[in-house]
């Protein structure tokens, strides 16, 4: 038995007897947007998967992520919060290579849609930023949402943060900030 939210986007993949089988596609209205650009949860997830390729040779695993559209900056930009850990280690002390992380930023941007890339070239959207957070930051985020009434067993890390207090919780645990160099093809 699965629980979906009203407004979730589902795909019918078949039937079992007369009951439909569903595949989860994305949450409704989970979108990053600065101007007229629109980035869905599915698009962001695909872009982040493309960037994870840059982490593999260095032994890093992306354990959790979230994002928000920073509209306080001019121009506005997408900010991604990434929680990383070393594949073969229990330590949370990461030595982050700025070149690798900047390549991750670039990979994410290259994987986003045409409108995003066009607005970046026109400087209507600022460089994408990845903020690496301490291991456990997303546990603190979960504690925040549970304290506001979310069910702990049904909690899923939000793809896009929109509540200021939630952004502040994750932002207070940042250990590194990296920006796209802006060279979009």
From TrEMBL:
GO terms for cellular component: cytoplasm. Keywords: Ligase. GO terms for molecular function: acid-amino acid ligase activity. Residues 43-162 form the GH3 C-terminal domain. The keyword Ligase applies. InterPro entries: GH3, GH3_C, GH3_M. It comes from the Eukaryota. Coiled coil: none annotated. Pfam families: GH3_C (PF23572), GH3_M (PF23571). Residues 1-27 form the GH3 middle domain. Belongs to the IAA-amido conjugating enzyme family. This is Indole-3-acetic acid-amido synthetase GH3.17. It comes from Gossypium raimondii (Peruvian cotton). The lineage of its organism: Eukaryota, Viridiplantae, Streptophyta, Embryophyta, Tracheophyta.
């Amino acid at each position: 038995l699965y629980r979906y939210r009203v407004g979730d986007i589902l795909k019918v993949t078949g039937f079992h007897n007369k009951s439909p089988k569903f595949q989860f596609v994305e949450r409704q209205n989970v979108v990053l947007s600065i101007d007229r650009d629109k980035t869905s949860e599915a698009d962001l997830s695909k872009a982040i998967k493309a960037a994870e390729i840059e982490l593999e040779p260095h032994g890093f695993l992306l354990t959790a992520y979230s994002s928000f559209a920073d509209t306080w900056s001019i121009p506005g930009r997408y900010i991604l919060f990434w929680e990383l850990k070393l594949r073969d280690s229990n330590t949370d002390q990461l030595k982050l290579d700025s070149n690798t992380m900047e390549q991750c930023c670039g990979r994410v941007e290259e994987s986003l849609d045409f409108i995003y890339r066009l607005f970046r070239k026109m400087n209507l959207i600022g460089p994408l930023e990845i903020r690496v957070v301490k291991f456990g930051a997303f546990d603190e985020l979960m504690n925040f949402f549970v304290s506001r009434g979310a069910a702990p067993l049904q909690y899923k890390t939000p793809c896009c943060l929109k509540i200021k207090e939630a952004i502040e919780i994750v932002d207070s645990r940042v250990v590194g900030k990296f920006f796209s160099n802006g060279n979009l093809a």
